[in-house]
Amino acid sequence: MSQIEIVYLTEDPTLLDICQRYWTQADDGQYVEKATAIAVELGVTQNALTKMLSTSCYAVSRQAICKRCQQPMRMFTRAQWQERSTWRGWSCPDCRDIELVETEVISRARQEERQAAQRAALRRDYPFLDSPPIDVDALSFRTTAYLLSFLHSMSTTDSVSFGPATSAPLAPTDDLKSSILVELGQHGLIGIHADKTPFDAFVFDGPRVDAYYPTKAIWYLPSASGERVWRLARRLDESLQVDPWPDEWWDEADDLLHTLALHECLDYFSAALQHYDIEFNPKDKSRENIVHALGLYSIGQVCQHIHSAVRNAAADLAAHKQTRGTAGSSASARIRYYADNALAKGWDIPSRQRFNNAEQSALSKVLLGTVLKIDDAAEWNRRPNQRQTES
Fold this sequence. Notes:
By secondary structure, this protein is mainly alpha-helical. Helices cover 51% and strands 5% of the residues. The model is unreliable at 157-162 and 383-391 (pLDDT under 50).
């Protein structure tokens, strides 16, 4: 007995006969006639026969029914019947659409439940700060410079100012930016907004907060500081310009200026590598090479050496003189070599500005503009501790 039932879509006797010949099975389940023989007899290709059949009939079987609505599967070719072993759990197109919607609804509900638990954990671990007014005079030089830079980078001037602090460049690199945010957060001067910060700023272990990405978080100044942002910024600015500085500020300022110089150059190095399509992640050796060059030249001149190093490494790469895997490390090594060579030969090295006129960071404006009265980072040159020089 045939396991297939034919459903006709035509009343044409010729087409009805072709459909019956194509789908009729013997008792052993084999087809009575071969499809190729039918096509030859009709004088058409097998593809043409299949197309003719698809508009004239289809087959159904109780072995292939939708698990949801019990409607049978429509088979237009013998190949579909041969694949019946894969039909277990089959759903018809209409039911499949319904299942997709239901799955999406369930998934969304689970996600909302998970995020609700995570948001509760964030509110627990990052409660809204209610700090007393900030005692500017008690802050160290670095903390003062960091907080003033943060205020300059914020997106609003309200006393309750929500970030992100990246609305304007806080620091030349993400590494330095992270250090600033973490330090200010540890001192309770700024806080992570538990309701505004996106979930991808945190690493969760279930509902528990395992870690966070400082540069992805939305930070704010505690509302209980008792001051509007502009007033606090003015006090911080005045503190940096007080004369004389506290003794401990000199060493702090010197260290922070050299940190800024390094990151200005690292930022330029990364931008130049990207411009010349060289994949390389500057690490400790690159930092050592840049610090060495900064001991000899200004930031702008070191950026000139960096530009030459990356450009020439890219030229060697294009000329197949080195591989893509070594181009970045080659550029890094050239920075030190070019600086030493230029100094030995007494060359006059021009100063380069930021790559593609990139915006100056808030920290750079504070340290160089407010503290040193220099218009741009490119002009700053490494020099001895100012207090020691004056003495």
